[in-house]
Structures are given as C-alpha cells and as structure tokens.
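Researcher: Let's run the pair from yesterday's discussion. Sequence first, then tokens, for each.
Model: Starting with the first of the pair.
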Amino acid sequence: MSVIRKGTLEDASNIFELYKKVSSIYPDNLAQQIDEVNFSYIQAEIKNAQLHGLVLLMFNDGKLIGFVKAYTSEFRRKAHVLTNATMMMDPTAVGQGFGTQLLEAYLDELQKSLRHIRVMELLPYDLNVKGIRLYERMGFVLTATLPNKIRYVNGTFGDQLLMNWINPSFCDQVLLQYYQYLKTLNNVET
C-alpha cells in the first residue's frame, strides 16, 4: 500500500539514500554528481521547501520510493514561482504509476495550500524522457530549451528544458499575504 505525506528533516537520511540509488542508475537525470550531494545539502533543501514551498514523500510498503520538493525565491518579486524542483523515484518503482500519483498529489496540494503559487517550473534534462512525458501528461508545457546546459557522464552535452504548469487556484490576495510572511521571515532571520 502506498502512502504520501509531507516530508520533514527527519526524512533526510532516507532521501539521501534515494539520491544515491537513483544516481547510480540514472546519473544524467540529476543536476549534481552524487559526490556533490551530502546530508547537509539534503537537510537544507528540505528546510527551504518547508519554509518556501512543499516537499512530499511517497512510501510503498513502508519504504521511501519517491519524493518531490520545490520552493520559491525568498524575494517577493519571484515568490509566485515554485522552482528549485526535484522529483525522484526509486528505479524499482518506475513504470507502475507511482510517479503519476505523487506528482498528482503534489499539484493537488499546491492548489489547496499554496495558492500564492502562479507557476511551477521544472528543468529536466533532455535524456529524462520518461520524466518529461510524465510532466506533459500532468499539464506542464515546454516553454524553452536551453542548449548545452548539462555535461553528461559520457562527456557529451545535453539540453535543459523549461517546463511550466499554471496553478488554476492562484489567488493574488493570497500572494500578498505570502509577501507579509516573507517580510516576517526575513526580519526574524536577520
């Protein structure tokens, strides 16, 4: 049985293990090489998603099989764009509909809880064909191709795609409230 829930800092070690597993099979789908990802990086990404976005985890039979995280800029002019996205599925769970369920749950939660988000952007690499097909099925639209943006493991260069999804539940009034949250957060952190 699969369960989807919000992620916390306590999930960092499981997420780190998933990074290692995915990078060993699909190294060209990640922006980083696995030796550039450490536990502190994972914790920082979770914290950013908790403060400025959303992180969801998917478990099947108690085992972490996927996660999605994204967060906005801390700057108000870009606070309506959910970016810095990572979606990762355990390779043994690919092709079984779990990715669709997880991304569907993520977009549903955005529409319910993050109505200040107007746009969610994804930046997959051109070799991530399965991921790109999933994103298109979920309503993401290709808006740009950025040539030679990644150097693959074999030494060739690949393109990065910019894909956007428009939140049908966006509310300008909620965005203005989020601006206040950012002001408070930035005053507390300084």
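Model: Moving on to the second of the pair.
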Amino acid sequence: ALRDGTVPKGDVLAVARVAGISAAKRVPELLPLAHTIGVHGCAVDLSLEDDHVAIRATVRTADRTGVEMEALTSVTVAALAIVDMVKGVDRSARIREAKIVAKSGGRSGDWVRPEDPQD
C-alpha cells in the first residue's frame, strides 16, 4: 500500500516529512533540559527500501550548541507518523533504530559515526 500510494490516510511520506520538520522545532517542549536554539533549516529525506523506510534528518543552526536532539526528534517523529498512517494496513509496522550518523560544528567539533558491519 505504501509503494503504490493506496494507504487510506494519504501520502505517508509527505506527512512524515512535515511531521519530522515540525518536531525539530519543538524539542524544548519535549525534552525538559534541551536548550532553545534557532533551527535555521531542517531537511527530512525518506527513501522506500525493500522492507523499510529509511529516514534521514539534517538540521542546521547558527547557534553554538549542537542539533543532535533536533535531528533525532525529527527522525523519530517522522517514523511515528509513518507507523500511525500505516497501522491500519500493516499491524507489524515498527520503529527499529534511530542514531546520530554525523555532526559538524559546535563546541565539540565534527564527529562521524564509525562504520558498523551490521549496518
């Protein structure tokens, strides 16, 4: 249903993208110790793979703190939106993993997740 666009609730990937972008802006409301930062951009890319939807969020700011929580929240809420929309046609839908792949800037500098043979 997801591949052929017949999910009754509508365009799953479009809704998930909007949900993810909106979520990145609301992190301080959800995480009590998160700093309020100016999110200057958030892109949520979704790709339909063989047996899952891969979600990647890229968040930008000019602030001196990182945006890891904004990116993780974006990806997670996008995944929740997908599960919500497809649960009527696929009761086995699940969220498997959310992780930081890379970050740049901020006080701690750049970081890239080492390759994991299981990925």
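Researcher: Give me one sentence on the second I can quote.
Model: The beta strands are 39-48, 53-61, 102-103, 111-112.
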